[in-house]
UniProtKB/TrEMBL annotation:
Limits of the U-box domain: 41-115
Keyword Transferase included in the entry's annotation: yes
Keyword Transport (UniProt): no
Species for this entry: Canavalia gladiata
Protein keywords: Transferase, Ubl conjugation pathway
Protein name: U-box domain-containing protein
Pathway connected to this protein: Protein modification; protein ubiquitination
Length: 427
């Protein structure tokens, strides 16, 4: 006596309909695999030993090994007469379609595709219900609904499209204002950073009350909330014409950004903070404020701990800050600034070398003799010669040559060469 399984008949019907669609050419196995493979582990028996991809047309050799037809035929076309897995010489080079395995592959991927499709439909339905709920509730119920929606948006691309296409962007944005709680604001911001914001919506989010809320939440939220705030502000500034930069460049925001940049436990937060700080520093009128909160010594202190990507951004920020008098003074007053910057020349990238050399130039303008002496003692001359002899851009080589000439003025030729720490051949 067979045991009744709820939903079994429906599942079998769905699979049959899917197979029918594939036979009629509406859907093919390759598309099915692409839809499913990235989100689930595929059984190893379905994987071709040559391409390490799921097999579309499995065929078996005389050795008993199975491969995808296109891959094994390509193997033969290269002049091989062996089994790729066992390296046995083939006594028969014919290939036999493995219909049983092909059926298993098709059935397995069909079932997974239908399960995934049903799950996505459920997710879309849940997202629509949550959007409707947000229009009707307030307080902690609204916060919980936002949190659930944010988790769906984080996890499913389809949810993002559902929210965008059903008025979710305007709805979530409208929840941000002067009286919004930080708990609600944090969830709303977490949703917005994952969506495609229109120019109109970005302008709406640049309202002073909303910007003020963003800055407050960034200073008091969790590390993930801080990162989301930094991402959202970056998105808003990328759209702006310049005036928006000043609108968000409050001392409170700058202080919050530096806290984010100093958090070594969260490298992603450091990167997000540096990127936003770089964008803000592109406005000359803001640079003095950035210097006034101690950004220069804090960034200098961070340099040895940063990865290459963050290091390049941090040096760019310092180079930009060196264009204002306060920035040059702050650089000069940093302990061991010259030897620390000299070490970065020709160490990471040509871009980093250019930024580092520009920073040294800025310090040199304030104290020529002191800077030149300390730089040479730190090994600057040897680094400059390496730049000149490298494949760097002509502008950087010219700058290095001029700096090298300046540094050599206070030394005799023999002493200066010894400072370069070069080989006898180069001497």
């Amino acid at each position: 006596m067979s045991v009744y399984e709820p939903g079994k008949e429906r599942r079998e019907t769905d699979v049959a309909n899917l197979e029918s669609a594939m036979e009629s050419g509406v859907l093919d196995l390759k598309t099915l695999i692409e839809e499913v493979e990235s989100s689930i582990d595929v059984p190893s028996v379905f994987i071709c030993p040559i391409s390490l991809e799921p097999m579309l047309d499995p065929v078996t050799l005389c050795t008993g090994q199975t491969y995808d037809r296109s891959n094994i035929l390509k193997w033969f076309s290269l002049g091989h007469n062996t089994c790729p897995t066992s390296m046995q010489e083939l006594w028969d080079d014919s290939v036999t379609p493995n219909k049983t395995l092909n059926h298993f592959i098709l059935t397995w991927f069909s079932q997974k595709y239908l399960a995934m499709k049903k799950k996505l439909e459920n997710v879309q339905g849940t997202a629509l219900k949550l959007l409707d709920t947000l229009k009707k509730v307030k307080g902690q119920v609204r916060v919980r609904a936002l949190k659930e929606l944010r988790q769906l948006v984080d996890s499913h691309v389809v949810t993002r499209k559902t929210v965008e296409e059903n008025g979710g962007l305007a709805l979530v944005s409208s929840l941000l204002g002067p009286f919004t709680s930080h708990a609600l604001g944090s969830e709303a911001i977490g949703i917005l950073v994952n969506l495609d914001l229109s120019s109109e919506l970005k302008r709406n989010l640049m309202q002073p009350a909303k910007v003020s809320l963003l800055v407050d939440i960034m200073n008091e939220g969790t590390i993930h909330t801080k990162m989301n705030c930094a991402k959202l502000i970056k998105i808003l500034l990328m759209e702006g014409n310049g005036s928006e930069t000043e609108a968000v460049s409050s001392l409170s925001l700058l202080v919050g950004l530096l806290r984010l940049v100093r958090d070594k436990k969260h490298p992603t937060g450091v990167l997000n903070g540096l990127i936003l700080l770089k964008i803000i520093c592109s406005r000359e009128s803001v640079r003095s404020s950035v210097v006034s909160i101690g950004a220069v010594p804090q960034l200098i202190k961070l340099l040895p701990t940063l990865n290459n990507e963050c290091l390049e951004i941090a040096l760019h920020i310092l180079e930009v800050l060196s264009t204002v008098p306060e920035g040059r003074v702050a650089l000069k007053e940093c302990p061991n600034i010259i030897p620390n910057v000299v070490r970065l020349l020709m160490r990471v990238s040509e871009t980093c070398t250019q930024f580092a050399l520009s920073i040294l130039w800025a310090i040199y303008k304030l104290a020529p003799e002191e800077c030149a002496s300390k730089a040479v003692e730190a090994g600057l001359a040897a680094k400059l010669l390496l730049v000149i002899q490298s494949g760097c851009n002509p502008g950087l080589k010219q700058m290095s040559a001029e700096f090298l000439k300046i540094c050599s003025l206070d030394y005799s030729a023999s002493i200066f060469i010894s400072k370069c720490m070069l080989t006898a051949t180069i001497q």
